[in-house]
Design a protein that fits this description.
Blueprint: E1 13-16, E2 19-23, H1 32-45, E3 47-50, H2 54-58, E4 64-69, E5 73-80, E6 83-87, E7 92-95, H3 98-109, E8 114-123, H4 133-139, H5 146-151, E9 152-162, E10 165-166, H6 171-182, E11 188-190, E12 193-196, H7 199-212, E13 217-222, E14 226-230, E15 234-245, E16 254-262, E17 268-274, H8 280-291, E18 296-297, E19 310-311, E20 317-322, E21 324-326, E22 336-343, E23 348-356, E24 359-361, E25 364-368, H9 382-385, E26 406-417, E27 420-430, E28 443-450, E29 458-465, H10 468-482, E30 488-494
Parallel strand pairs: 3-14, 9-11, 18-23
Antiparallel strand pairs: 1-2, 2-7, 4-12, 4-13, 5-6, 5-8, 6-7, 8-9, 9-10, 13-14, 15-16, 15-19, 15-20, 16-17, 17-22, 20-25, 21-24, 22-23, 26-27, 26-30, 27-28, 28-29
Length: about 500
């Protein structure tokens, strides 16, 4: 097998023997990577995540194809006229693996001149232990022997195209084709699969494969009902760093929480939002507690209803459960989350920078952890890194810190109405981060309007730009729109 005609071989970086990697830009056909990414995105959107308790409640009786879910790297085999490479959504091309030679022979013998085949690249353990995606990171990036290369195997689970035709057929037919071609394979093989006719059958395989044998989960497909990914729920502990309040008929209750884990250097990294699993009493009590802990923050985030979180002092630890952690986007890039530094002297969160973490699938609140505190042990980032690969998890975020922002101007106005004090505050700052990342504008104005007599007491407005003259214009417009007769200035500051 060689990569002539499909890949510029001069761009292959040899890792061991004939095995090497190259970027997707080395492929002759630039459309291949988008096809891989589109397949990953579309197949993921059609896969409904469930946990063990959902099997009986949410999976109707039907004919199902049940597969053991492997913990590896999603990869697509690309075969054209005797040339075979593999490509993942992140754009890494691999050539020269032993299983690829076996795959090339199978496809040649089957008379197939073109194919794109989806599967899982995983690391086999000789002792029978469960495969882990972490093993791919070490073996595929830095193999140290031929034996390391032989441990890398490929489990086929779908067909994307065959002989230049997209595969658009019922999955039962696809499964038969996969079995026909790869059923007797050794290093490349069909993902372990069985047929099921009821949710009871699926529960049995979940118990046998996942509970007893420790597999990552099940993938369940039906041509009539749909596709499901079933995994056990995991738990982790995280700090509450923000909250939003319900409105309308649920006023007086917490809506959802913003959570963070702690990196080894003590920085807090935003993990997820959690809004399910709370009783009404818990929502009332948490809202009361959180209101007493509100602090200022350079960082702002909104929930799914576009309501900004009120940031709170990181003192409370909660336990959440979840179905899955996803550490890559559908295009293979990292899932970046903001890292924050808690300044206890000023009771303020300061922005450090965004760094890789994960997306949390189906988070649910379980309980307050009064027995735990906010420290690098109890809410450690390793809880996440033990389950999925988190690049730079051990890096000191503060040593990679972005430049600090400078407050340019601050004005606070008050006015009494019906015996209640109204407050309007304007803050303008220069981020000094616009050259570091496209995520940051050069200048920001944050306007806060608090009026206790309104149905929604707190309103906010944010203006951003990279132009100094324009931010001054925004400042004047906001002040003219919102400061009329009767407002008195009570605080102001301006950089010299």
């Amino acid at each position: 097998m060689n990569a002539n005609g499909l890949l510029d071989r001069s761009r292959i970086e040899i890792k061991w023997g004939s095995y090497g990697t190259a970027p997707a830009t080395a492929l002759d056909d630039p459309a291949i990577l988008p096809r891989v990414q589109d397949y990953r995105r579309q197949s993921g959107s059609r896969m409904y995540p469930l946990d063990q308790d959902d099997i009986s409640r949410k999976i109707p009786s039907a004919e199902y194809h049940v597969s053991r879910k492997l913990d590896g790297e999603f990869t697509v085999l690309v075969w054209r006229n005797g040339t075979l490479v593999t490509l993942n959504p992140g754009g890494t091309v691999r050539v020269g693996l032993p299983w690829q030679d076996e795959a090339a022979k199978i496809l040649t013998d089957a008379g197939i001149h073109e194919a794109m085949i989806a599967g899982e690249l995983y690391a086999r353990h000789d002792d029978g232990k469960r495969e882990r995606v972490h093993d791919i990171a070490s073996l595929a990036r830095q193999p140290e022997s031929d034996d390391d290369l032989n441990k890398l195997q490929f489990a086929v689970f779908d067909l994307i195209s065959i002989n230049d035709q997209p595969v658009e057929q019922e999955f039962n037919q696809t499964a038969k084709q996969i079995q026909k071609w790869f059923g007797d394979g050794e290093l490349i093989h069909v993902v372990e699969s069985v047929r099921a006719k009821s949710s009871g059958d699926i529960k049995k395989y979940f118990h046998d494969w996942v509970v007893d044998e420790g597999s990552e989960g099940l993938v369940v497909r039906s041509d009539t009902v749909g596709n499901f990914k079933i995994k056990p729920r995991h738990t982790l502990d995280a700090a509450i760093i923000g909250f939003t309040e319900n409105s309308d008929d649920r006023t007086g209750m917490m809506h959802d929480l913003l959570l963070a884990v702690m990196r080894n250097d003590g920085a807090l990294q935003v993990l997820c939002r959690v809004g399910g699993g709370f009783s009404d009493d818990e929502r009332r009590n948490l809202l009361s507690d959180m209101k007493d802990m509100i602090v200022t923050s350079e960082y702002a985030e909104v929930n799914s209803d576009h309501v900004a979180y009120q940031m709170v002092e990181p003192k409370c630890v909660v336990e959440i459960s979840f179905i899955d952690l996803i550490s890559q986007t559908t295009r293979g890039g990292p899932v970046n989350r903001m890292v924050l530094s808690w300044n206890s002297n000023d009771s303020n969160y300061e922005v450090v920078r965004r760094m890789p973490l994960c997306s949390v699938i189906s988070p649910q609140f379980k309980r307050i952890r009064d027995d735990k505190s906010v420290n690098a042990s109890d809410i450690r980032i390793k809880q996440v890194a033990d389950l999925v690969e988190v690049p730079q998890a051990d890096r000191d975020a503060n040593r990679m810190a972005l430049p600090k922002s400078n407050v340019l101007r601050r004005e606070v106005y008050t006015k009494m109405l019906k015996g209640e004090k109204m407050v309007r505050k304007f803050v303008m700052w220069k981020t000094n981060k616009e050259t570091e990342s496209d995520e940051f504008p050069g200048y920001v104005i944050h306007y806060t309007d608090f009026s206790p007599n309104r149905k929604s007491p707190l309103n906010r407005d944010i203006r951003v730009t990279n132009c100094a003259d324009q931010i001054e214009q925004h400042w004047q417009e906001l002040r003219e729109e919102n400061i009329k007769k009767g407002w008195s200035i009570v605080g102001e500051a301006e950089e010299p």
